[in-house]
Amino acid sequence: MRSDLDIINDWIQEDSKVLDLGCGNGELLQHLMGKKNVKGYGIEINADEINNCIEKGIPVIDQNIDDGLQNFGDQSFDLVVMTHALQQFRRPDLLLDEMLRIGKECIITFPNFGHWRNRLHLGIKGRMPVSEFLPYNWYDTPNIHFCTFVDFTRLCDEKGIHIKRWAAVDGHLRDHWWIRALPNVMSETAIFHVSR
Amino acid sequence: MPDTIPADSVGIVTPNIAVFETPLALSSKQTLEQYELIYETYGKLNAKATNAILICHALSGDHHAAGYHSMDDKKPGWWDSAIGPGKPIDTSKFFVVCLNNLGGCCGSTGPTSLNPKTNKEWGADFPIVTVTDWVESQARLADYLHINTWAAVIGGSLGGMQVLEWSIRFPDRIKNAVIIASAPKLSTQNIAFNEVARQSISRDPDFHDGHYTANNTIPVNGLGLARMLGHITYLSDDSMGKKFGRKMRHDDYQYNYGIDFEVESYLRYQGEAFTKRFDANTYRLMTKALDYFDPASATNGDLSKALSSAQCDFLLVSFTTDWRFSPARSEEIVDALVRAGKHVSYAKIDSNKGHDAFLFPIPRYMSALNGFLNRAHNILIQESN
């Protein structure tokens, strides 16, 4: 079990109605359906992942999030979750608005581009970072909108989005005190719980 | 003709006929005093009768979904690619039932049957039956077969409409619903296509107001034309283009109104072949059943509310180049199910085959069906232990 799932799990109310944007193989939803009795739906575009969810009995909808989420009603979910995907969309800012229109609350996780190793890569080598966790070249990466931990908090400020709580973890999604102390430099993954 | 029966085929099958003496009250307020349903079954019903799957056919389908009637058959049943031992609708796990719907022309009571009151063929006097009537008659067939609850009801196109109706009308008799390339109601354009098909039949001088048999004739031109039109709408521009392009019959244009292009010859052949196996009155009736289907009409157009009684798990499937029942139409059902808080999954399959794609064993489509039904089977086993 990935431990960012454990962090998210602790933040989620029992019996919530949850929409997971980019749900992959449905691991998070399966976990929450089992432990928190949530009513979950995943949105996914990858054919193999969709079939994987269907096999496991996790409700999954084949939909391109970049084409919009207008088919979901205002405040129709208790929670909208998006793990490791925000940076892959055309307009993460507008997507965040959409998530908070559909869900009463949102949980978002993303790779923190401000991590010291990325800074070193760019600052010393002068090249775009490629790592175990971000294994793509600049030209073939699905991650078209990287941001840092601080960038995200600024965006929330500008939009008047309330950050209920946050966590910052390393590449193995573990929590440490030194990451908590300096999240923008030390965390590889940022986790935010936000609402309007 | 198969030289040998393939290992994943259900083999040689024989249709059965169920006779019903209890009158069936129809949506049209007419009553069918008695009727017969022809059906086929594949696989074995388990002791508790919990592993049965109902297959609902589309406009021109019938009860012969899989296997062969004899070693002389040129082709197996219409959905043989999906039904058989080891196939997605796995007959080594499930007992599969497929019937010819009422009003059909392949052995169930319909316009080509004898009207017991007149002892003549019903012809155009056969009452129009609806999807609701079909589902009611299918429930009676289930009773007849001692099946209380279907493990799954599966259908494409008009068949998918029957599945949707099952989920609403008999929520406690269906565990899983698979709705493929379907819609919660026809679009205006779809109704318009159906009307052209019906008009081409009824305007054929050989139609005789639907009593062509009594006049010893068949409206082959009208029925053929209706099929040609329908056939075009079941294909995509891309698939027709790939198959025929502008391929010609002769080296040069003929400058007459005969056949220049291969696609013309193909359509004429399709139209003509259809008239040999299908009845014109049944075709008109089936298109009416399509037009009338609209389960949300009972809830002021709120499909989500109409589906509130449903209890089964749903799998919806659509195909990217299907424009007769486009993905957007399947998505209307998906969205309504999500709003109603129902268990639903949806796969939009890449295919260039248009509406016809639902009859092809496209790997991603078959794998989705397989995964969904495997899970249904696993749950069955858990529940029986």
Automatic annotation (TrEMBL), chain A:
Highest taxon above the source species: Bacteria
NCBIfam families: metW
Record protein name field: Methionine biosynthesis protein MetW
Species this protein is from: Marinomonas phaeophyticola
Gene name of the record: metW
Automatic annotation (TrEMBL), chain B:
Pathway assignment: Amino-acid biosynthesis; L-methionine biosynthesis via de novo pathway; O-succinyl-L-homoserine from L-homoserine: step 1/1
Domain AB hydrolase-1: 51-359
One Pfam family recorded for the sequence: Abhydrolase_1
GO terms assigned for molecular function: homoserine O-acetyltransferase activity
Site (Important for acyl-CoA specificity): R324
Function noted in UniProt: Transfers a succinyl group from succinyl-CoA to L-homoserine, forming succinyl-L-homoserine.
Keywords recorded for this protein, A-Z: Acyltransferase, Amino-acid biosynthesis, Cytoplasm, Methionine biosynthesis, Transferase
Gene: metXS
Localization terms from the record: Cytoplasm
Entry similarity comment: Belongs to the AB hydrolase superfamily. MetX family.
Subunit structure comment from the entry: Homodimer.
Catalytic activity: L-homoserine + succinyl-CoA = O-succinyl-L-homoserine + CoA
Species per Swiss-Prot/TrEMBL record: Marinomonas phaeophyticola
Entry annotation: catalytic residues: S157, D322, H355
Binding site for substrate: R227, D356
EC number: 2.3.1.46
Protein name from the UniProt record: Homoserine O-succinyltransferase
InterPro entries, A to Z: AB_hydrolase_1 (IPR000073), AB_hydrolase_fold (IPR029058), HAT_MetX-like (IPR008220)
